[in-house]
C-alpha cells in the first residue's frame, strides 16, 4: 500500500504536476475516490498583480431600461442599466430591443455605445437584417464592461423584487434563456471565448440552505435597503443551468471543511471581445468614434432608429438619476491554464481565465449585496485587492499536496 | 507721438492683459482645484490612463465647437465621478478655465483654439 502511494506520488512528480489531495486523506491511501478533483494549486500573491480594474455596475431598482422614447424625428430604444448582469443578459436584452426596432420598418440603425450591451445589440440588429453603425467614444476594451469578472451571473443586482414587479421576472426569464442559448453557440471555439469551468464554493461553516429572510417591511423604491431587497430569479432557469452539488468530505481537496461544486460559464474577454468585433466588421458594420454631450446631439445622425446602450454613462448623458452605481473591483494575475477552476470563499471570488487569474472582493465585510452600492469611486483600491488575494493565499497555504 | 497718443497706445496695449487677468487667475485657481479633485484619476498632466480618458488630445476633438457652458455643465453634473455635483459652479468654472488654458483653447464662448491654424 505504501509503495503504491509512493508510486502515485512519483508519477505525479514526473508529470510535473502538483496535485491536491483530499484534506482528510493521508499519503498511501489506496482507495482513490472516483471523482476526486485533481487540481493544481494556485498561490496568488500581491506581487503578481498585472492589473486592477474597477467597474461601476449600472443598477436600476426597476430593472434595465428597455423603453422607447422619441426625440425629434428619432426613435430611441433604450438598452441600459443591467446592474451586475450586463454580460449575462446581453443577448437576451438585445433580442428584446431589436424586436422593437424591427417593428418600426427602418433599415438603418445606430447603436450608441460599444460595451457588451452595445456590441451584442449591434450584432443582433445585423442578424435581423439591419445596416448598423456603432457610435461610441470607446471600443469594448476601454469600456466599463471589461472591468467585470466575466461569468454567468444573470440576476446579480439586476433589480429590486418589489420595485421591478412580477412582469419583469417574466421578461428576465425570457432574456436569460435567450442569452444562455446564444452563449452556448460560442462554446468549443478556438481560443475559448466562452467556456465552462468548475467553480468551488467553500465554507468554514455548514451551508445554510434555509430560505432567505423576508425583505424589510415597506417598499424599497429606487434604493436598495438590504440584500433581501434584491431580486433573485435563477430558480426560474434551473432546468438549463447546471446545478450546484455538495462535495463529500472524502472528495474535498480544499482546506475548508465544506465545499460545493458547479459548472460555471465564463466569458474570456480577450478572445470573446475580439470575436464579436470581428463578426461585426465582417457583416459590414461600421464604427464611428464619437462623443455625444446631450441627447439633442443625436439629431445630427442619419439613422432614425437609435439603440441607446451607454451603461453607467446614462447617468450624465441621458440625465438618468435612477441609475445607482455599484462599485466592484477585480485584480488580475498571470494566466494559469493548468489550474482551470474557480473558487468562492470568505467573501472573495477567484476565476482562472485565459487572460488571467481574476480575484475579486465580492463581500469581504459581510454586507451582502449592499457591497459597493452607491459607490462610484472608479479608482483602484490596492488594499481591497490584497485582502481578497489573502483569502486564497491563506487557503492554499493550508492545503496538503503531493508532487510538490 | 503725442502724450495723448502714447497714453491711448499704452491703454490699448494693456487692454488684453486687463481682460485676461481674471481668466488667468481663475485658471491658476483651477489648476489647484484640478490637483485636488481630478488628478487622482485623470493624472497630474491630464494624461489619463487605460480606464480614464486623457483631458488632452481627443478631449479637444470631442469638445471643439461646443459652448464652454456645455463643458461646464457636464463637469458640474458628472465629475468627480465618485461625488458628482459636489463642485460649486465657481470651482467648476475655474477647473474648466484651467483645462482650456492647458489645451491652448480660448476662454469663454465656444471651445476653439486661441490661434486657429
Task: Please characterize this protein's 3D structure.
The complex is a heterodimer of chains A (404) and B (117). In chain A, helix 3 links the parallel strand 5 (108-112) and strand 6. Chain A contains 7 helices and 16 strands. In chain A, the strands form 3 sheets. An 8-stranded mixed sheet of chain A has the order 2-12-15-14-13-7-9-8. In chain A, strands 3-4-11-5-6-10 form a 6-stranded mixed sheet, with helices on one face. Chain A has a two-stranded antiparallel sheet with strand order 1-16. In chain A, helix 2 packs across helix 4 and helix 3 (116-127) runs parallel beside helix 5 (269-282). Chain A is 25% helix and 22% strand. Chain B contains 5 helices and no strands. In chain B, helix 1 (3-37) crosses helix 5. The longest helix of chain B has 35 residues, at 3-37. The N and C termini of chain B lie far apart (35 Å). The model of chain B is unreliable at 11-19 (pLDDT under 50). The A-B interface holds A 53-54, 137, 142, 147, 291, 293-294, 315-316, 319, 375-379 and B 40-41, 50-53, 62-63, 66, 70, 74, 77-78, 81-84.
Please indicate the percent range of residues of chain B in DSSP E strands (runs of 2 or more). under 5%
Biggest sheet of chain B, in brief?
A: none
Instruction: Calculate Rg of chain B over CA atoms.
Output: 17 Å
CATH class of chain B: Mainly Alpha
Radius of gyration of chain A: 23 Å
CATH superfamily of chain B, please? Cytochrome c-like domain
Averaged pLDDT of chain B: 85
Total of domains of chain A = 2
Treating each run of at least 4 consecutive H or I residues as one helix, how many helices of chain A?
7
Helices and strands of chain A, in order, run as: HEEEEHEHEHEEEHEEHEEEEHE
Keywords (chain B): Heme, Iron, Metal-binding, Signal
Organism (chain B): Gluconacetobacter takamatsuzukensis
Pfam family, one (chain B): Cytochrome_CBB3
Domain Cytochrome c (chain B): 25-103
Amino acid at each position: 500500500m505504501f509503495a503504491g502511494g509512493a508510486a502515485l506520488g512519483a508519477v505525479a512528480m514526473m508529470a510535473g504536476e502538483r496535485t491536491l489531495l483530499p484534506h482528510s486523506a493521508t499519503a498511501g491511501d489506496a482507495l482513490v475516490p472516483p471523482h476526486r478533483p485533481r487540481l493544481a494549486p494556485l498561490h496568488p500573491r500581491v506581487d503578481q498583480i498585472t492589473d486592477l480594474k474597477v467597474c461601476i455596475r449600472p443598477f436600476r431598482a426597476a430593472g434595465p431600461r428597455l423603453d422607447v422614447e422619441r426625440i425629434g424625428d428619432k426613435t430611441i430604444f433604450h438598452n441600459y442599466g443591467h446592474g451586475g448582469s450586463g454580460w449575462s443578459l446581453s443577448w437576451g436584452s438585445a433580442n428584446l430591443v431589436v424586436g422593437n426596432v424591427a417593428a418600426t420598418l427602418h433599415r438603418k440603425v445606430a447603436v450608441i455605445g460599444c460595451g457588451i450591451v452595445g456590441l451584442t445589440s449591434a450584432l443582433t440588429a445585423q442578424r435581423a437584417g439591419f445596416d448598423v453603425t456603432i457610435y461610441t467614444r470607446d471600443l469594448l476594451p476601454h469600456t466599463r464592461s471589461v472591468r467585470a469578472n466575466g461569468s454567468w451571473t444573470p440576476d446579480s443586482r439586476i433589480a429590486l423584487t418589489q420595485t421591478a414587479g412580477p412582469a419583469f421576472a417574466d421578461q428576465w426569464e425570457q432574456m436569460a434563456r435567450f442569452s444562455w442559448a446564444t452563449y452556448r453557440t460560442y462554446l468549443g471555439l478556438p481560443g475559448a471565448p466562452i467556456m465552462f469551468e468548475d467553480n468551488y464554493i467553500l465554507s468554514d461553516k455548514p451551508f445554510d440552505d434555509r430560505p432567505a429572510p423576508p425583505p424589510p417591511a415597506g417598499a424599497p423604491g429606487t434604493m436598495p435597503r438590504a440584500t433581501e431587497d434584491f431580486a433573485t430569479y435563477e430558480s426560474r432557469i434551473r432546468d438549463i443551468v447546471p446545478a450546484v452539488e455538495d462535495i463529500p468530505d472524502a472528495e474535498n481537496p480544499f482546506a475548508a471543511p465544506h465545499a460545493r461544486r458547479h459548472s460555471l460559464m465564463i466569458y474570456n474577454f480577450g478572445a470573446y471581445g475580439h470575436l464579436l468585433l470581428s463578426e461585426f466588421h465582417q457583416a459590414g458594420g461600421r464604427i464611428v468614434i464619437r462623443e455625444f454631450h446631450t441627447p439633442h446631439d443625436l439629431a445630427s445622425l442619419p439613422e432614425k432608429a437609435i439603440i441607446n446602450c451607454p451603461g453607467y454613462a446614462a447617468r450624465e448623458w441621458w440625465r438618468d438619476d435612477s441609475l445607482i452605481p455599484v462599485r466592484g473591483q477585480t485584480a488580475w494575475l498571470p494566466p494559469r491554464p493548468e489550474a482551470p477552476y474557480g473558487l468562492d470563499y470568505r467573501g472573495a471570488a477567484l476565476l482562472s481565465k485565459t487572460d488571467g487569474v481574476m480575484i475579486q472582493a465580492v463581500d469581504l465585510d459581510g454586507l451582502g449585496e449592499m457591497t459597493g452600492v452607491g459607490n462610484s469611486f472608479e479608482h483602484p483600491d490596492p488594499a481591497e485587492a490584497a485582502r481578497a488575494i489573502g483569502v486564497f493565499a491563506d487557503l492554499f497555504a493550508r492545503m496538503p499536496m503531493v508532487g510538490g | 507721438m503725442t502724450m495723448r497718443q502714447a497714453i491711448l497706445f499704452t491703454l490699448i496695449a494693456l487692454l488684453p492683459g486687463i481682460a485676461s487677468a481674471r481668466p488667468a487667475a481663475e485658471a491658476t485657481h483651477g489648476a489647484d482645484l484640478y490637483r485636488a479633485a481630478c488628478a487622482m484619476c485623470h493624472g497630474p498632466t491630464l494624461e489619463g490612463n487605460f480606464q480614464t480618458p486623457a483631458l488632452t488630445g481627443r478631449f479637444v476633438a470631442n469638445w471643439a465647437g461646443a459652448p464652454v457652458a456645455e463643458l461646464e455643465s457636464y463637469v458640474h453634473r458628472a465629475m468627480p465621478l465618485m461625488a458628482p455635483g459636489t463642485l460649486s459652479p465657481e470651482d467648476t468654472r475655474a477647473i474648466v478655465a484651467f483645462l482650456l488654458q492647458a489645451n491652448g483653447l480660448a476662454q469663454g464662448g465656444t471651445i476653439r483654439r486661441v490661434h486657429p491654424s
